[in-house]
């Protein structure tokens, strides 16, 4: 396990990883979604023989997993991206392939804009691209609480009861304040939006969507801008759990 400083003095962002076999390819950096952790969601994917030769980093964003959870931190998408950049700087990583799930995909987009030298390719799994997601979305349900009601008024506990066992297993490890502020940041989005930033990037970009999710909004615009949009059959939002072989194949495939 490794750490790097970020944000408030003394705060550390943490990650685990594998060295790979020195095949010369870009390191792969796996970034989790809201209330998740990177190794739980992606270590089994990185172990697939077609992917195992590369150096792999499983980074936990601030407030999640093995990373610190400072109370005086904003947990905006930009804050998360800057913390992720600190981890990659400390790890000596440049030109990485970023594999980001849900919120992690949004953070990866922001990082690619703010620190382009760190990113050579994006693989985005059902990443949030637009502000104000539907009220049924997990981030919207969390953001519907005030911070005080979520952290100290039972909202966190209600959310743990409401979500399924897969999400609950890692969400209960997240700091409630960090979780709420991160959810609010997703609902608020960025300016320009994550979608607009993605459309303007020049690196190879792949967007993965589960076959059970339905049609991706703005599919034609994304493909026209050079984003490879791929549907992974038999999968919902957690593509890497629902169809691990299909997910791994999509990571290996070039746009």
Automatic annotation (TrEMBL):
SUPFAM superfamilies: alpha/beta-Hydrolases
Residue span(s) of domain AB hydrolase-1: 29-135
UniProt key word Nucleus: no
Coiled-coil residue windows: none
Single GO MF descriptor: hydrolase activity
Keyword terms of this UniProt record: Hydrolase
Top-rank taxon: Bacteria
InterPro entries reported for this sequence: AB_hydrolase_1, AB_hydrolase_fold, Carboxylesterase_BioH
Protein name: Alpha/beta hydrolase
Native organism: Streptomyces luomodiensis
